[in-house]
Amino acid sequence: MTGFSFTLNATDGRARTGVIQTPRGEIRTPAFMPVGTAATVKAMLPESVRATGADILLGNTYHLMLRPGAERIARLGGLHRFMNWDRPILTDSGGFQVMSLAELRKLTEEGVTFASHVDGSRHFLSPETSMEIQRLLGSDIVMAFDECPALPATHERQAEAMRLSMRWAQRSRDAFGDRPGHALFGIMQGGVERDLREESAEALRRIGFDGYAIGGLAVGEGQEAMFGVLDYATDLLPEDQPRYLMGVGKPDDIVGAVQRGVDMMDCVLPSRSGRTGQAWTRRGQVNIKNARHADDPRPLDEHCTCPACTGYSRAYLHHVFRAGEMISGMLLTWHNLHYYQEIMQGMRDAIAGGTLDAWVATFHAQRAEGDIPPL
Ligand SMILES: [Zn+2]
Known about the structure:
Shape: globular
Subunit structure: Homodimer. Within each dimer, one monomer is responsible for RNA recognition and catalysis, while the other monomer binds to the replacement base PreQ1.
CATH topology of the largest domain: TIM Barrel
Cofactor: Zn(2+)
Number of domains: 2
Largest sheet: 8 strands, parallel
Radius of gyration: 20 Å
Mean pLDDT: 96
Binding site for substrate: 92-96, 146, 189, 216
Number of helices: 15
Low-confidence stretches: none
CATH class of the largest domain: Alpha Beta
CATH architecture of the largest domain: Alpha-Beta Barrel
Catalytic activity: 7-aminomethyl-7-carbaguanine + guanosine(34) in tRNA = 7-aminomethyl-7-carbaguanosine(34) in tRNA + guanine
Keywords: Glycosyltransferase, Metal-binding, Queuosine biosynthesis, Transferase, tRNA processing, Zinc
Helix content: 40-55%
Strand content: 15-25%
Bound molecules: zinc ion
Strand order of the largest sheet: 4-14-13-12-11-10-6-5
Number of strands: 16
Structural class: alpha/beta
């Protein structure tokens, strides 16, 4: 399609690095997408998100359709203009969040009727309405509408949900139509059942998408089960198109997923953790709330070049968190997003240089050391 393409530049084992070209700019892969749920990455200005190295943001259809409304965003010039982010945006379909957040849900072949968690108002989402809402938002990468059943679920329940999602994938493809410069990704389902994953991948490939997501993971199955699926699932998808693992994850999840051939990921974790006093560093997780930081003049991570680490001490970060100051969430979110993007850049460089195994070994060794000892 015009204006949207994926170029694979290098592989190392099953890991890949490349570039997704869109009319709104390049997305270097493997890519981590910060989550801008309500048209904002919480506690960050868009230019600050860009400064961390992010090429693309994720927006949530479910949240935006309820508040402020897709038609309103369209009238105000689309989501990019509305939130002052002119680079690519991927929107989810609303399917996952309607299942996890909405009330009084009624699921039929046609779609899902539900009550808003904001004000109780009634809404309907289907493949067709989801495509229309994502078009109104002006999303660059649109996700097919799917159903993700809560785990644990029986094989039969998962098969049923997956087959419904595949029928919805076809309807999403039909409703999306031909939109040059915009991409539509299909979503593989099937939980942790290999036969269902294979059937799902085949159905999606038959329909044909601009990229393929792996859905239904990071929903409580644990890292080992998730990697177990990724061990074969990425190979079921076309080599020459991007592969997106939805909702992942912790730094070691991200590294393991890239090693297994994933190109894109998103997660609220770095931004959410930043607001609860949790920092992710090369030496693992740091809880800035802990009293051990109260008199510590050292930075969170002496090697990190983010504003939180170059300008402030652990003692300051501890103080502003304890005092409930807004700058606490701002600084820790910036650091966490910066660290995540540093991981992505490190992996992109290592894959290009054929040294990913060594990079991963260092990544794990540094984490195993743990945080610097208290003073
Ligand atoms: Zn930092």
